[in-house]
Amino acid sequence: MIPERWLNAALTLGLLAVPLWALWADEPFTITLATKVAILALAGVGLNIALGIGGLVSLGHAAFFGVGGYAMGILAHHAQTFQPMIWGLEGTKSMPIIWLTALVSSGLAALAIGALTLRTSGVYFIMITLAFGQMFYYFAISWPAYGGEDGLSIYVRNGFPGLNTLDPIQFFAIAFTALMLALFLHARLKASPFGLALNAARQSPDRVETVGLSPFRLRLLAFVISGAITGLAGALFADLNRFVSPTMFSWQLSGELIVFLLIGGVARLYGPVVGAAVFIFLEHHLGDISEFWQIGLGVLLLLIVLFARGGLIGLVAGEKR
Amino acid sequence: MSLLSVQNLTAHYGATQALFDVSLEVAQGEVVALMGRNGMGKSTTVKSICRMIPAGGTITFDSKDLRALPAHKAAQAGIGLVPEGRRCFPNLSVRENLIAAARPGPWHEATVLDLFPGLRDRLDQSAATLSGGEQQMLAIGRALMTNPRLLILDEATEGLAPLIRQAIWDVIARLKQDTGLGILLIDKSLKELSAIADTAVILDRGTRVWGGTIAELTPEVTNRHLGL
């Protein structure tokens, strides 16, 4: 078995090496694929805080991904059309402002959804989060001001001071940095008294109460942090594609985020990174062979669930205690 | 004035009434033994006090009415519980169990480890892999990390080897001697309870049938109510 710390370091280097090789080989599409992996992994890191540490099986995280995406889409749309938004506010093409808006708006969405859904547990929690995700999906479809079912196209990628964001490697650097920061936050949170109490609340909420902690509040805070990170990923994903549409809210995307964690390893720090990389690899390479590439993904998922509960990281680094 | 005052406590499990007007008081620095045979309502009384189950009557802690508070607020008010069956967080290490429960006050990791030096070598070990005695020490340490003013120990020595039981009793005696904690003790060991408690309350079928000082706890009383 390889110590998880070494495996994580190797994965970080691998994620850096692929686009650098692609840059050398003049393969910009590979850089874009690596960027997509980094962004989807970022969304998975968000979910991993709720699901991996807190045990909250949310089937509605696409809602936060979509809110982040639409935060970017709406701000950029108003900037490119020179039309003011509500209360005369101007749109913007500035990534830092868009990210902040995405973090805050998806965090607030998570606060509202979590305040209601976290009063339930088990299958009820799964179904109510799914229902909220679908509510956002149908709301976006019926919102003609921002494209309705057709979505919104953003003609020019948003800007970041000092960087040429249209250069694939520079945009990858932004996504990679965001992912590293989120992974650092996850690691710190998990080891903090808050993370430990959240983990304990997953195992035995009644015992947590007897030491003076409210499982509901712990989970709500985790859900908000989780939603905000997933929202940031949504904003970056929309920027990568220069397009937002209601599919960002779809329940399939919520399911894919869970699949990332199952493939890589639920609660493993780099679980979403491995899961997103495998998913994109299969989508790209198996997708070239057959449009039914998801059958291959399904077989892999089945094997992992049956024989490798710790995901691929668990296979290499061993089971956690 | 009492730190904890319980008056006319009633509790139900569904349609079945488990407690009938139970009253007891614990003063600061006092050790009160809650005694009774199995199934007589001792743990139900503890769960009611800690707000883990709904209960009738009045529960006042440090002049604060606990009845309207959820369990975590009761714990925040200063009630530390060492629950029956230890109930450590199994997936967390010893250190993580302590950190997760920590609240500001004189008890912290170092002072808990001074009380239980045996845990020092187990700090990074998963709580689930500890022996029963070590888990009990951890459960007491975790309760102390909340910096309570009242410590409730529910069957803290149950199922432990004699040497470990004695170590736990020594710790409780040390807590009584060195701290101003009020302590509510539930145990079946009459000899050890008599040596450490100031007063006792006996429950029989959910009803308080006897209360008084340990000196008044005569063989006739224990024979009648505890079958000893």
UniProtKB/TrEMBL annotation, chain A:
GO terms for cellular component: plasma membrane. The keyword Ligase does not apply. It holds the Pfam family BPD_transp_2. Coiled coil: none annotated. Keywords: Cell membrane, Membrane, Transmembrane, Transmembrane helix. It is a multi-pass membrane protein. It is found in: Cell membrane. The chain crosses the membrane at residues 6-25, 37-64, 97-116, 123-146, 166-185, 220-238, 258-282, 294-317. One of its GO terms (molecular function) is branched-chain amino acid transmembrane transporter activity. This is Leucine/isoleucine/valine transporter permease subunit. The lineage of its organism: Bacteria, Pseudomonadati, Pseudomonadota, Alphaproteobacteria, Rhodobacterales.
TrEMBL record, chain B:
GO terms for molecular function: ATP binding; ATP hydrolysis activity; branched-chain amino acid transmembrane transporter activity. PROSITE patterns: ABC_TRANSPORTER_1, ABC_TRANSPORTER_2. Gene3D superfamilies: P-loop containing nucleotide triphosphate hydrolases. It holds the Pfam family ABC_tran. One of its GO terms (biological process) is L-amino acid transport. It comes from the Bacteria. Signal peptide: none annotated. Keywords: Amino-acid transport, ATP-binding, Nucleotide-binding, Transport. The keyword Transport applies. Residues 4-228 form the ABC transporter domain. Belongs to the ABC transporter superfamily. This is LIV-I protein F. The lineage of its organism: Bacteria, Pseudomonadati, Pseudomonadota, Alphaproteobacteria, Rhodobacterales. The gene is livF_3.
